[in-house]
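Internal ticket #5521
Category: modeling
Description: The requester needs a full-assembly model to guide mutagenesis choices. All entity lines are attached below as received. Residue total reported by intake: 1376.
Assigned to: D.W.
Attached entities:
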Amino acid sequence: MYRWNNDYNHGAHPAILQALQQTNQDAFAGYGLDEWCKKGSLEIKKYLGRTDVDIHFLLGGTQANYTLISHALRPWQSAVCADCGHINSHETGALEHAGIKILTAPAEDGKLSAKALHEIVAAYRSSDVKEHITEPKLVYLSFPSELGTVYSKEQLQAIKQECVQNDLLLFIDGARMGYGLGAAGNDVDLKFIASLTDAFYLGGTKCGALFGEALVIVNDALKKHFRASMKQNGGMLAKGWLLGLQFYTLFADGLYFEITKKADAQADLIRNAFVKKGIALCPENRTNQIFVALDREQEKILAEKHIFENEGYSQDGRRIVRFCTSWSTDAADVDALIADIEKL
Amino acid sequence: MYRWNNDYNHGAHPAILQALQQTNQDAFAGYGLDEWCKKGSLEIKKYLGRTDVDIHFLLGGTQANYTLISHALRPWQSAVCADCGHINSHETGALEHAGIKILTAPAEDGKLSAKALHEIVAAYRSSDVKEHITEPKLVYLSFPSELGTVYSKEQLQAIKQECVQNDLLLFIDGARMGYGLGAAGNDVDLKFIASLTDAFYLGGTKCGALFGEALVIVNDALKKHFRASMKQNGGMLAKGWLLGLQFYTLFADGLYFEITKKADAQADLIRNAFVKKGIALCPENRTNQIFVALDREQEKILAEKHIFENEGYSQDGRRIVRFCTSWSTDAADVDALIADIEKL
Amino acid sequence: MYRWNNDYNHGAHPAILQALQQTNQDAFAGYGLDEWCKKGSLEIKKYLGRTDVDIHFLLGGTQANYTLISHALRPWQSAVCADCGHINSHETGALEHAGIKILTAPAEDGKLSAKALHEIVAAYRSSDVKEHITEPKLVYLSFPSELGTVYSKEQLQAIKQECVQNDLLLFIDGARMGYGLGAAGNDVDLKFIASLTDAFYLGGTKCGALFGEALVIVNDALKKHFRASMKQNGGMLAKGWLLGLQFYTLFADGLYFEITKKADAQADLIRNAFVKKGIALCPENRTNQIFVALDREQEKILAEKHIFENEGYSQDGRRIVRFCTSWSTDAADVDALIADIEKL
Amino acid sequence: MYRWNNDYNHGAHPAILQALQQTNQDAFAGYGLDEWCKKGSLEIKKYLGRTDVDIHFLLGGTQANYTLISHALRPWQSAVCADCGHINSHETGALEHAGIKILTAPAEDGKLSAKALHEIVAAYRSSDVKEHITEPKLVYLSFPSELGTVYSKEQLQAIKQECVQNDLLLFIDGARMGYGLGAAGNDVDLKFIASLTDAFYLGGTKCGALFGEALVIVNDALKKHFRASMKQNGGMLAKGWLLGLQFYTLFADGLYFEITKKADAQADLIRNAFVKKGIALCPENRTNQIFVALDREQEKILAEKHIFENEGYSQDGRRIVRFCTSWSTDAADVDALIADIEKL
């Protein structure tokens, strides 16, 4: 069976394991106060075009999301996101558990629009009884979105403009950042993201690392005491260097970008195969996640050799399923899947 | 100026103040462990047709809502309500602040439908990754709804059926319970509500008391340690007898039902006046809250002598406003308003 | 039976009920945005010697404590108090429930000492791993203390000095403020307290009001959004004027100070009677709470006619009990108690 | 420089890295639903003498502690521990952040005594106002304790007896479990611990793994929905098999016990060297942490070649420091340290 159901079903890029092996005899300071965390941060900063940011390494995406957001907001403030946003739909209410209300807008192809954001903020601004509602204060979006689509530079600028005009923070969940940056047609880079956001993170778990996410805090007001928030929320790894080392390995020679871009190209090949067969992409995107609507027969045939993920039903009753490529996807596996699609 | 903007703009029914006066020389045990809380509970129980409930007196509706719900739910469980539900829209995220996520369904005339509830529960039931989402576990609705409409017996039974089939708790916010029960055409009574719910409360603040809400806990599993939850959430009044005494006064001779029914009838008169003028009710209801869509001229004229509440805009651009009658509304004021409506 | 067990066993000073009666026909804006809240605030400010404070009326002490403290602190910060502090010992963990850790120091006669505070702060300051512990950030004390003792001006200044040197907030719980200010030998007044603290409250519940506490926010940084915190924590009364009116009544002519001072004097008479009998005060104080250690026989005899509160045992095995006078205590009752003490 | 400051300054036992390497080409189901988590659990269960437990793999100790305890307790309940307990002293108030109050007793050589526990519970049981305080409901202790001492079977049985008599849960933090079990004179084994507790965890981070803790839930009432709590608290690793595989590797052939026992023996050698020099152990223990009081000269000399951790001051003004051995400690390093101690 071929596993396409997600992009975190293999361990790590060989270079990561090699780095762990090579440093295993060395002793390091604990809790992220080691040289590899410094070196990993330095390599990441090279891509940001700025050094005035704090970089912290956390263990997973849910943890990064609620730790940063609950660190940034006060109890009377809320986070705004698309209704399909990961914090709203797949994190077991972690943000509400941390005391923060989420205000949602209907997504457009998985994305939050500046217009929808504007309406949420305007409703608060025009309220006569502001103390009876929460203050929208932070915008959460993921790049790429839950549906693998990427925001254009223009879309992000429009959202940023709303943020600036209304004193909102902008936070980007980059669990799959590499796949977004590497997508055909994408016009956004890390410099742009670092110039736009108050904080964002670069996912490692889904992009070649064994585990770990690199959180970049741009806004000075969010920097102080963040390590205390990490510790309090179970996000400070005793052996922090394991994370710094992995991000050093991924960023020192651009490996991060190379392996995710390759996966995007593989996904394009698979998408093409589906499209040729007249199978609709829903929605279209150019990143490593492929969403298609299969009829019962198609689903059954593909399921014989391939594991993919059920994502619900389309309005015409077909099953929507997800295939993911990743940094670990073999060219031969892609060929096999394409051959099976062609046979449908 | 006449104040119609809400139903809590006067102190208390004279009988309440008289009761406070008459007991002011007496000394009582603190924290609700006094004779008046017992007597108030007994009088309420007579209307419930059952004595196996616990009754606690809290200070306000927001407090009653989040204290009961956060007492009832575990961190991984969520509350379900209509999107316009008070806990979702007017309580500054108090429930999320208490760690509980709210799942919302689009309201129909202010009400949650059994069908919408079913869909939310079905989505959880059919999920392959239940531990990544919250378990819908409690249904919150208010009687009457935020828009003054009342649920029929049949509608509540359909909701209850979903609750039984899916092991959900049912909680009714009765901040305006008297006005719901007294509405023309209502077929629900407190016996029915006490047979249906796991907990509900009878509002005092808006129904003749100075302040206070009587929370009725029906489900045995929710009874234990509730006083600790009250204390922990700032809801245990040192001079608890002030609340018991007020509810005794309202329920001993049925005053609660009489004064709210009167207000419903007054609202009907006002509604009739609007309808005669061709001014749309939005929505129609028979309780003490009147929602109408006024054009700019109508709004301006009425605002000269009357204070009412802005509720947003209708799709055709007219202003939706709310007029409330209450236990304290004078017949003469109703006449004055009607006269002004007729002059429009 | 005479009730001495607490100072909140009667309704309200007659002037309070009269004020409620006189305004009962009037309609007011809701949620504390009314004229009585303004007028009540103005009267209080006259005693503070400053007008640049925000005054909010809350419903009870526990609520005032956790709402203010959790509004003021961030998740990684903690509150410091004496181990017997009300927030630590009598509020069902309300502050921890709101996410805030409490650091405690052994009390001296119910009071926190500047020295103990210094040690707690020094331990944080000297820590190499500050992100693994909470930052002590707010000092909580009550005036008078849990044991009815009052801090001298000098003691408070010493505590303030620690706060200034270490950037700590100072918050005073004044649930019994009147009794503290009226105590023989007390050298503190409200002007001093308002010059010293970041926030404090003046208790109404135990000092002549039906219910309610007036929270004074001095520090500008704590003012913004406090009404949202009140609403979110169930502390915003719909009929807010009921609170403003009560505090207006208590402060407009100094009634607050007069009735609490009288109670202190009554307590002094009772204390004298105990001391004459050789019964030890534990500890000595001059406010309305009398703590004495009774042997079994003394306890039994007094319990025949008097209700008092059990406070544990002294080291020599006698029962420590509390008698309270209050604004509602009759001179005749004091005489009766003294006569019974003399007969021991 | 030799690093003795903690027991988590090296990566992982070589067998762990080898296992990661060997499985790196394989694809697995996510979130702990894979075969290695099953196999790891099975190996652990062999040492517990029972299979009716749930085993979950979490990422770190703080996370394991607050996730389990806040899953187990309701808001009005509290956890009891020694004042030096890790949850009270080194986790940035994580448990209070999760809403849970901690009640502490003075530690005896780092341990909670059954007697101190009894007093805390008795204070609650005898209270007349239970709803004003939290209900002590869970006992937290670590094995070995914060000071490296181990509880005897008899001590744990006495604590268990208190738990049984008062309906308390017993939870053991086993971050250093291996070092406790391997200590000379220890009479406790995992079978005993699994028979005694409601939940406990086996630390991997400090005992040979790269990272990870294996939480064993014994009490059926705590099992349901625990995966939801893990996800909500950021403790569910996407690539869960990384944890299962590590614990399989440590437990399949008893490696866990072997490598920690070796470290205990190394620590004994170092302790002997200190004692021979007349340097006091504070306290005495037989696990991998060595606490000694050094005078300024001794400290200075040892610091030239060795890194150790500052733990405060003894009453006579000497510095208390900690040296740790671990699974990764070389015999040659031990010899070097002993030689330097002998030269003092």
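Resolution: model delivered.
Comment from assignee: The longest strand of chain A covers residues 135-142.
Ticket closed.
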